[in-house]
Amino acid sequence: MGSRMFTLAATVALTGTVSLASAQAPVPVVPMSRSQIAVACAPPPVVAREPLDLPRVLGSQDVVTRSSFGTPELLVINVGSNHGMQVNQQYFVRRLFRNAETKYDKLAHMVHTAGWVHIVAVNEQMSVARPDYVCSELRAGDFLEPFEAPTLPEGDIFSPVTRGEQDFKNYSRVVSGPYDRLAAGAGEFIAIDHGSDRDITVGSHFAIWRDLQATGMPLTAIGEATAVAVGPSRAMLLVTRSRDAVFKDDIIVPRVEEGTATVVEPGAATR
After folding, report:
1. Which of 17, 113, 215, 224 has the fewest CB atoms within 10 Å, i.e. is most exposed?
2. In this predicted model, what pLDDT tens digit does every residue of 144-199 receive, in sequence order?
3. Percent of the chain residues past pLDDT 70, beyond the cut
């Protein structure tokens, strides 16, 4: 216990001198657009199990013990230069999204982005980080992943795009709304069950349809969406227009350049 307290005290001392003693430049402030901030706060297009080897938030350098944090804060990270931590590195702060039923399971889950931070002090065993942006509360136990600002197409990603033929042959399905909800609305993010495996890229546009499961009824148009983050087998879409809530299992139809789509009648799609 004594050596650990000494290590923490040394880290605290570093926070007052690192900006003067370090030869590294201050963390670069790169302005991010409203769209970039929104996408950076969204879940990444993956599901994951609890990581075992990533840096973790231990707590804060407040005068009382707390388990949730905001800004301004000085957060204590459980690793230091022994784990490659350096002053001015930026990291996402994330955790698996769980509910009461899944709190202790070992399954893969959607990843929640709580915000991002940069390292302001490092010793061999610990680091101190300062939040740059808080999407929701930061918590003790959250893990850190390298930060990268989203690269988005030019223009306002919140505006619906309806040009391009609809390729009903290569449809996907909604698997989740925000915070693992079963529904989402305009301006919110949805996860779908395909990514780069279906040649989806950031900026791809989609129409949203629903199968009403009624005999003889065609698909019903629900809205529009744009891909903002793409993984190997999952993509995050921003709902840009909707006439109803977008539900899990709703059908996502890509819009493609004229002449390259496989256009079929919008009947009841089945897996």
Report:
1. 215
2. 999 999 999 888 999 999 999 999 999 999 999 988 889 999 999 999 999 999 99
3. 84
> Residue 57 is which amino acid?
V
CATH of the domain at 232: 2.40.10
Tokens of 181: 């909800």
Contact 77, 96 (CB under 8 A): no
72: enclosing H helix or E strand? none
Give the whole-angstrom CA distance, residue 270 versus residue 261. 19
CA torsion angle 112 116 122 128 (round to 10): -80
Nearest to 251 by CA among 160, 172, 134, 140: 172
Note whether residue 261 is domain-resident.
no
pTM score above 0.85? no
Residues 12 and 66 in one domain: yes
Q: How far apart are CA 46 and CA 28, in angstroms?
A: 28
Check if the beta carbon of residue 131 is closer than 8 Å to that of residue 115.
yes
Q: In this structure, is residue 74 part of a structural domain?
A: yes
What backbone phi and psi angles, to 5 degrees, belong to 20?
A: -95, -40
Structure tokens at 54: 């990533």
In one letter, which amino acid is 42? A
Task: Report the domain count for the chain.
Answer: 2
* Sign of torsion over alpha carbons 177, 178, 180, 185: negative
87: its two tokens: 């002053």
- If residue 38 lies in a helix (H) or strand (E), which one and from where to where? helix 34-41
The CA distance from 100 to 227, in Å, is 30
